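Structure first, sequence second, as always.
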């Protein structure tokens, strides 16, 4: 057996073992990813230089920059303010609160990212719902689904989109104009379905409504000058994302520039700001990129791409639909982050072999499948796992099967709507 074949077997085994351990959830996913990356280095599949090259800096930089901005902004209390203000605007009516929080979650997931958004929204939600003496699970499940749908709309909304944008160079504006319309449509339909499912659990007595209405949201703001600075920098950063193609700057550069500018304006202590960065997510990505880089190095990705080409013939519509549904179903059960990371080089190789000049329809298929597929199960996306963990720590467990019964049918319906959208506008 040649050395190349041995390396291929090692890389394949490490990749499959990593997947199994991530789904099993007995060991933290970051530990699993880093362990897989270390095995790649120990077995000599990649050199240290090659491993560093395999790490997508644009993805890592974008996440760190946005997490730093949110870390500073969070200290102003603006997210608590928005939560209470939203509930009061709904006159403490549970149905309106549910729809309002989901709408806020979706929009925030599109403009920040869904992982960061749920970290901020979930504590506020549990506080509001506890005042109303309601079961938090319907609200949390709905917010998980809204975060994944909302995150589908932009480059920075969901990790799969961040990875696709980093690899392809597709701009923030390109994601917004091509994916936001269908994401908005799916969100409206999804919220209607969630209301039908949970409407009987959204009854509350008048006393609990009065307790909520008596809260003063203005008291939630702890530092108004810092809030103004944070909103200014956040607005400039989002504007930079919109124009980064014309500016010739990567999205990571814009996010990190915004973070540094806010550090300067806020005169914040870097160690406190960096504590707000979800480093376990960052290092999960690092490990994952190295493992996928090993698959590319030994030729496994090319082999799979050739098999896909043989199955679809590289035909635009057939291949696009295969990517959409394969990504959605797989992402529902194996986490959309590692799956999309694997699919990106595969699709790129498939396009090269088929001599496809415009691969954007395939990238939109992958983005829609990967992001929407994350709603299929509780382990389908990072945001899902984070919400489940936060809820469990607060004594509100969300079981895998309970979420599956709601999330999987909604996921199938949303992907079907995405398929119709792609067939009408792209896969022709």
């Amino acid at each position: 057996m040649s050395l190349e074949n041995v390396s291929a077997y090692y890389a394949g085994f490490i990749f499959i073992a990593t997947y199994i351990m991530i789904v099993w959830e007995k060991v933290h996913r970051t530990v699993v990813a880093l362990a897989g990356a270390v095995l790649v280095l120990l077995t000599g599949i990649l050199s240290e230089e090659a491993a560093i090259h395999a790490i997508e800096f644009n993805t890592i930089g974008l996440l760190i920059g946005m997490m730093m901005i949110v870390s500073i902004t969070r200290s102003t209390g603006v997210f608590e303010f928005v939560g209470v203000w939203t509930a009061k605007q709904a006159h403490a009516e549970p149905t309106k609160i549910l729809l309002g929080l989901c709408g806020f979650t979706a929009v925030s997931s599109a403009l920040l990212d869904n992982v960061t958004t749920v970290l901020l929204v979930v504590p506020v939600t549990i506080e509001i719902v506890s005042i109303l003496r309601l079961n938090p699970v319907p609200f949390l499940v709905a917010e998980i689904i809204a975060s994944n749908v909302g995150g589908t709309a932009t480059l920075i909304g969901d990790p799969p989109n961040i990875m696709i944008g980093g690899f392809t160079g597709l701009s923030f504006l390109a994601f917004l104009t091509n994916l936001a319309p269908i994401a908005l449509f799916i969100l409206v339909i999804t919220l209607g379905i969630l209301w039908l499912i949970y409407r009987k659990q959204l009854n509350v007595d008048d006393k609990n409504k009065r307790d909520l209405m008596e809260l003063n949201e203005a008291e939630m703001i702890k530092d108004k000058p810092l809030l103004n600075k944070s909103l200014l920098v956040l607005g400039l950063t989002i504007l930079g994302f919109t124009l980064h193609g014309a500016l010739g700057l990567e999205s990571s550069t814009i996010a990190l520039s915004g973070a540094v500018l806010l550090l300067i304006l806020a005169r914040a202590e870097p160690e406190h700001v960096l504590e707000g960065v979800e480093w376990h997510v960052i290092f999960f990505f690092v490990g994952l990129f190295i493992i996928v880089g090993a698959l590319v190095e030994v030729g496994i990705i090319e082999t799979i791409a050739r098999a896909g080409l043989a199955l679809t013939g590289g035909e635009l519509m057939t291949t696009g639909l295969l990517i959409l549904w394969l990504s959605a179903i797989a992402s529902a059960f194996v986490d959309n982050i590692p799956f999309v990371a694997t699919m990106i080089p595969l699709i790129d190789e498939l396009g090269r072999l088929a001599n496809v000049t415009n691969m954007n329809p395939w990238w939109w298929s992958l983005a829609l499948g990967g992001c929407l597929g994350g709603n299929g199960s509780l382990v389908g996306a990072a945001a899902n796992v984070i919400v489940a963990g936060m809820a469990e720590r607060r004594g509100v467990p969300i079981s895998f099967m309970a979420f599956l019964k709601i999330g999987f049918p909604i996921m199938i319906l949303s992907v079907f709507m995405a398929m119709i959208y792609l067939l009408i506008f792209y896969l022709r």
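Margin note: The two ends are 45 Å apart (CA to CA).
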